[in-house]
Specification:
Elements lengths: L1 H17 L8 H15 L7 H28 L4 H14 L6 H19 L2 H39 L7
Helix pairs in contact: 1-2, 3-6, 4-5, 4-6, 5-6
Amino acid sequence: MTIVIWILIIALFLLSFIGLVFPIIPSVLVLWGGFLLYTFAINSGVLSLWFWIGAALLTLLILCADLIASQYFVKKYGGSKWGERMAAIGVIVGSFVYPPFGLIFVPFILVFVTELINEKNPQYAGKVAVASLLAFLSSTFAKFIIQLVMVVWFFMEVVLKGSIFSF
């Protein structure tokens, strides 16, 4: 039974990384599902208080990554609030339109059109649209790294405490 639970935990971890490309999958919740499944189904005493505090703080950072990157890049290139909103809508819509390419092109097009309507300048609109693309790519990379740190930390705690196959 423990092997089946481990397969589920690893599947949840992999699914959390897939969620970076398919935002319809709540990556961080799926990742936490793996942590909690281990805790409640295999061994509740292995993961330290520091792990849980660190995981909570890293989760907050993951949740803020999109906002931080979007604000940084779009503001740096002079984008409007509507451009930021269209980038967010584009990520949601793009996840249903031929993922992962929809995640790149739909926000880019929406931001470009929005900024073109606002400013009537195609060069400016293109610059802001590229900024929204950079924001998405950088936040996705940051979330990937943070999730990887969380998974590695999890396995380090489990392996170092010698309970990887506890019953």
